[in-house]
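Figure 6 in text form: structure in, sequence out.
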């Protein structure tokens, strides 16, 4: 088991998995640096964490704002050197209801948040952790990255990039005392996908997902994939003829809302 993290940074902490992880880790002796874009929800999460005994700093920062984000991360690290960083902020966009092509601005927005925003988060933290020779980065991937799905190609692409980046970093950072974990969740009941009309096999609550993630992170697991049966089934699709899989996936009705976020800031 790894030492219990005392100083934790979580982006996307105002909702979904980020919120659930903040509440799961909250307790006496724990410092939580929480970041989100909805100030009201962020304040609520911060208050709940403090009620559990945690010390918190909360900031409303867009993860695309590289300079502002880096300045804030360095300021919280100066005060409480970070043990664990979880870049959880992300959005969803997709197709459905006669939309046969993703809006180019929506595609660039999801890349700027789901991918560039993650890089903006981990870069300043990795620099500090490597200097100390300890720390842990937990990347939030997705089962949707294991095999691209026709109704959410841009989302799948951003998560596939996160998978490759985490795997690429893991070996090099391990030599410097910094662990990298890749989290690969299946369907989790969050505000991000509540309006998504599509099959959601083995859907679980964000609280349960947070418990699974924390157990894996406590062990220092390089990969935390769940539910296992869904992960293995999706992985198997990569070995079947692509035409067959494409045909079968297109038979499934899905309507995934288009993100209202249409600004790329990188």
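Output sequence:
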């Amino acid at each position: 088991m790894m030492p219990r993290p005392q100083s934790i940074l979580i982006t996307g902490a105002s909702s979904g998995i980020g919120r659930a992880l903040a509440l799961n880790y909250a307790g006496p002796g724990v410092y939580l640096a929480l970041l989100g874009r909805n100030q009201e929800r962020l304040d609520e999460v911060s208050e709940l964490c403090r009620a559990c005994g945690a010390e918190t700093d909360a900031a409303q920062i867009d993860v695309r704002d590289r300079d502002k984000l880096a300045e804030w991360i360095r300021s919280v690290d100066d005060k409480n050197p970070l043990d664990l960083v979880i870049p959880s902020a992300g959005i969803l966009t997709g197709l459905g209801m006669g939309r046969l092509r993703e809006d180019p601005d929506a595609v660039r927005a999801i890349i700027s948040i789901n991918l560039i925003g993650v890089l903006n988060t981990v870069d300043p933290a990795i620099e500090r952790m490597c200097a100390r020779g300890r720390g842990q980065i937990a990347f939030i991937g997705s089962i949707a990255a294991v095999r691209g799905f026709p109704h959410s190609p841009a989302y799948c692409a951003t998560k596939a990039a996160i998978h490759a980046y985490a795997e690429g970093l893991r070996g090099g950072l391990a030599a410097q005392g910094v662990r990298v974990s890749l989290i690969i969740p299946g369907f989790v009941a969050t505000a991000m996908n509540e309006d998504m009309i599509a099959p959601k096999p083995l859907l679980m609550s964000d609280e349960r997902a947070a418990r699974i993630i924390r157990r894996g992170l406590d062990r220092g697991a390089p990969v935390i994939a769940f539910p296992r049966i869904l992960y293995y089934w999706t992985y198997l699709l990569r070995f079947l003829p692509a035409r067959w899989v494409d045909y079968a996936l297109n038979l499934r009705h899905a309507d995934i809302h288009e993100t209202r976020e249409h600004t790329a800031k990188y």
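Caption detail: The chain is about 45% helix and 15% strand.
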